[in-house]
Amino acid sequence: MLTPKSRDCSEPSIDKSSEVLPDQPLSERSICPYHHILNYDEKRIPAAISEVECSCPHVKVHGGIIHCEPMMYNMRVMLFDDSCDKYVERVQKVALACVPVFSNHISSGTHSHSLPTPPSTPL
Length: 123
What we know:
- The protein is mainly beta.
- It has a domain at 25-101: Cystine-knot cytokines (Cystine Knot Cytokines, subunit B), CATH 2.10.90.
- It is built from one helix and six strands; from the N terminus they run αββββββ.
- It has one helix at 26-29; strands at 34-40, 44-45, 48-54, 58-61, 64-80, 87-101.
């Protein structure tokens, strides 16, 4: 782990509106807490890649629950082939950020939810 977890997931969520300061680290100002990890593979170029890992699966915000998911990036890397004779270009998913997202299920409460509809004309 490159950076420590920014907060304990079992603690109640903090009201960020009263505590956010511009000089605080981004990991402390974000809705979804995260920390950095090192993804190391000696048979890859680059051998070391710094990634983000969500510290909590969800957070409570204004009485609701927001899920935290990694935002992935497809990164080109060079990997040794099976016989370790030469490098082969590959694409590897790398977590860049931990982003807040709404739940992907519909609750059975009194609120009506609609699913997004695709545009009727091409963009």
